[in-house]
Write a structure and sequence with these properties.
about 350 residues, Four Helix Bundle (Hemerythrin (Met), subunit A), Rossmann fold, 2 domains, four-stranded mixed β-sheet, 11 helices, globular
Length: about 350
C-alpha cells in the first residue's frame, strides 16, 4: 500500500512516505546539504526518530507517530482483544513520551486508539489492517487540510506582499504542502507577488536549513536573515505580514511555537504588522485554558553550544534551551485553520472549528 502521489498539485516535498509496510522519512537533521531517507518498521525506532528530530513539526510528528503505533500493533502477538489493547496502550505511551509540546502527537495517537476501542468485536488481525489504513488516512487528511488552510490564509494577503516567517512550518513540518508555508504557496498559486524573509531560527536553524531550502526548491523569492534582524527590517517598512505555524494552541488562542516566536510577535505589534498563525484544528487543545498550562520542552544544551561537531561556546557554560515559547492571543491578528479564519473571540471560534472537525 502507498500514500504517495495522492495530491500531485500540492507543492512541496513529501517528507513522510509509506509503501509496502515501510515508513521512509527524510532525515531533516542533514538538510540542506544532504538528502538522505531512513526506513522504519519498528515503533521504538520511530519513537527515536521523533525524539532525535529526524522528523519535526507538529503535524509531521503526529503522522509519524500514527505509523509508529501501527508498527507497534503489528508486532503484538495475541488474538485476544483485551490483551492486545493493553499492549497497544503501552506502545502508544512510548510514542507519546517523545515530545511533550506538540499536541498533534497526542491527537494522532488518540485517533489510533479510538479506532481500536471502537471495534472490540473485530479479530485482532483485522484491527491491525484498520490501524494501517488509519495512519495512511491521517497522512492524506493532513495534506488536504493544509491546502484548505492555505486558501483561507492567502485570501488575507494583499496582491503584493513581503512575509516574515519563523522556524519551518512548511511541507517538511507536515505530510506535505505546509501550514505557514502552505499559505505562502497558496498565495503564489493565486498569482500574488510574494517575497519571503526566512529567519534562521536559532538554535536548531530550521529557518536557514529547512525553510530556505523548501522555498528555494519551489522558486519562491526568499531572503535569509539572522533572527536579530527582524526588528530592523520592520522599522524600515520591509515586512508586510508575519506568518508562523504552531505546536499547540490553547482554548483562548495563546500559541506555543518555536522559541523566538513571541519576540517576533511583540515586534510585529509594535510596528502594526499583522501576525498570523496557521495551524490545523488538531493543534488546538481545548483542554488547556491558556498558554501558561502548555508544557515547554527543554532540549540538549549542545543545540546551543555546538553546530554539528563545531563547538561555539566555552566548555562548561550554563545553558538554557527551551524549544518553544508562548505568544499570547492578544498579539495574534488571526488564527488560520482548515475551516476558516478565527479573529477576535478565539475561545468561541476555535471551539466551533474543533467541533466541526469531529
Amino acid at each position: 500500500m502507498s500514500n504517495c502521489g495522492a495530491f500531485p498539485n500540492a507543492g512541496g516535498i513529501r517528507p513522510i512516505k509509506y509503501s509496502d509496510g515501510v515508513l521512509r522519512l527524510i532525515d531533516q537533521r542533514l538538510l540542506p546539504t544532504e538528502e538522505s531517507w531512513l526506513e522504519y518498521t519498528d515503533y521504538q525506532e520511530v519513537a527515536e526518530a521523533i525524539r532525535s528530530m529526524v522528523v519535526r513539526g507538529a503535524p509531521a510528528i503526529g503522522i509519524t507517530a500514527a505509523y509508529g503505533a501501527y508498527f507497534g500493533a503489528l508486532a503484538i502477538e495475541t488474538e485476544n482483544y483485551a490483551d492486545f489493547m493493553t499492549e497497544f496502550a503501552q506502545v502508544c505511551d512510548v510514542l507519546a513520551g517523545t515530545r511533550p509540546t506538540a499536541v498533534n502527537l497526542f491527537w494522532a495517537l488518540e485517533r489510533m486508539k479510538s479506532l481500536a476501542r471502537a471495534n472490540p468485536d473485530q479479530p485482532v488481525s483485522n484491527l491491525k489492517i484498520g490501524l494501517e489504513y488509519e495512519a495512511m488516512a491521517i497522512n492524506e487528511d493532513d495534506i488536504r487540510i493544509n491546502m484548505s488552510m492555505g486558501r483561507h490564509g492567502a485570501a488575507l494577503l494583499p496582491d503584493q506582499v513581503r512575509i516574515l516567517t519563523h522556524c519551518n512550518a512548511g511541507a517538511l513540518a507536515t505530510g506535505g504542502y505546509g501550514t505557514a508555508l502552505g499559505v505562502i504557496r497558496a498565495a503564489v498559486a493565486a498569482g500574488k507577488d510574494v517575497a519571503v524573509f526566512a529567519d534562521e531560527t536559532r538554535p536548531f536553524l530550521q529557518g536557514s536549513r529547512l525553510t530556505a531550502w523548501e522555498l528555494q526548491k519551489d522558486n519562491i523569492q526568499t531572503v535569509l536573515i539572522c533572527d536579530n534582524m527582524a526588528g530592523y527590517l520592520m522599522s524600515k517598512g520591509a515586512i508586510d505580514a508575519v506568518i508562523v505555524g504552531a505546536d499547540r494552541i490553547a482554548a483562548n488562542g495563546d500559541v506555543a511555537n518555536k522559541i523566538g516566536t513571541y519576540t517576533v510577535a511583540v515586534l510585529a505589534k509594535e510596528h502594526n504588522i499583522p501576525f498570523y498563525v496557521a495551524a490545523p484544528t488538531s493543534t488546538i487543545d481545548l483542554q488547556i485554558a491558556d498558554g501558561s498550562q502548555i508544557p515547554i520542552e527543554e532540549r540538549d544544551i549542545r543545540e546551543v553550544t555546538h553546530i554539528g561537531e563545531q563547538q561555539l561556546a566555552p566548555a562548561g557554560i550554563t545553558v538554557f534551551n527551551p524549544a518553544f515559547d508562548v505568544t499570547p492571543a492578544s498579539l495574534v491578528t488571526a488564527i488560520i485553520t482548515e475551516h476558516g479564519v478565527a479573529q477576535g473571540n478565539y475561545t468561541e471560534q476555535l471551539a466551533t472549528y474543533v467541533r466541526r472537525s469531529g
